[in-house]
Write a structure and sequence with these properties.
single chain; eight-stranded antiparallel beta barrel; 8 helices; globular; about 240 residues
């Protein structure tokens, strides 16, 4: 399913899965896969992801939720976002077996074959320090804002303290922000990912969001320590979910 990059709202298709009895929908690990694909291959790429790859991955124990998103700001365009019990799920025999035996459809239409940009990163949550019941029970958000960044080692401790105790909590006060979480990469680069869940794609264009940007004197100086990856921050609208 293709959603225009200027889409005003979340447009998503929800496919049923066989795992409706699972209580937890969120964990401490993320698998995030970004891709750009040629326009003439998008229809087949989307069909492969929605009908083949996403259900295949969600059948693996430890995969709690899975959804696909498309960028309306930033990039890469396509995002597959999986909530994991922990990053260790990707080291289990069940996952390794599926990973080592791709289907013929995957070999033909997967991002490893056709993508012009292909990023696969694995993350472990660093903020908040634990998955609360509210987080664990929450559905996949209609919209995400994702920042992917690195900082110099000398600034790492101060940066993390500031980001987790000042920057994210202040943005969580903005109307339309559901929550913010932070992650450290255990596979892939750059080192850090910030995941904001939004009610709609215009949240970070609001005056309330802009007011928080420099609400604290330290914000401007700390932002200067960050180096964002290409396309970051990106705003993504949900298109497909397994539920």
């Amino acid at each position: 399913m293709t959603v225009p990059r200027d889409a005003p709202d979340s447009l998503s298709v929800i496919y049923p899965s066989a795992r409706e009895g699972d209580m937890a929908k969120k964990g401490t690990g993320l698998l995030m896969v970004w891709a750009d694909v040629p326009a003439d291959k998008e229809d087949e790429f989307n069909r492969w992801y929605n009908e083949g790859h996403l259900p295949e991955r969600m059948a693996i124990p430890g995969f709690l939720s899975g959804a696909r998103y498309e960028a309306v700001k930033g990039g890469p365009k396509h995002l597959a976002y999986y909530e994991l019990e922990s990053a260790a799920v990707l080291e289990t025999p069940a996952y390794k077996k599926v990973q080592a035996n791709p289907t013929e459809w995957t070999k033909r239409s997967g991002p490893g074959t056709i993508a012009t940009t292909f990023i696969r990163n694995v993350y472990s949550m660093i903020h908040p320090q634990a998955v609360t019941p509210a987080i664990a029970g929450a559905p996949m958000a209609p919209v995400l804002q994702i920042g992917r960044m690195s900082v110099p080692p000398a600034a790492d401790r101060e940066f993390n303290t500031w980001y987790s105790t000042i920057y994210v909590p202040n943005y969580e006060k903005v109307p339309g922000v559901i929550r913010g979480r932070r992650y450290r990469a255990v596979e892939g680069t750059p080192t850090y990912l910030t995941l904001y869940e939004f009610e709609h794609p215009k949240v970070s264009e609001s005056s309330a969001w802009m007011a928080q940007r420099d609400a604290v004197p330290a914000n401007e100086q700390m932002r200067k320590t960050m180096t964002h990856a290409s396309g970051s921050p990106g705003v993504y609208v949900k298109t497909v979910e397994l539920s």
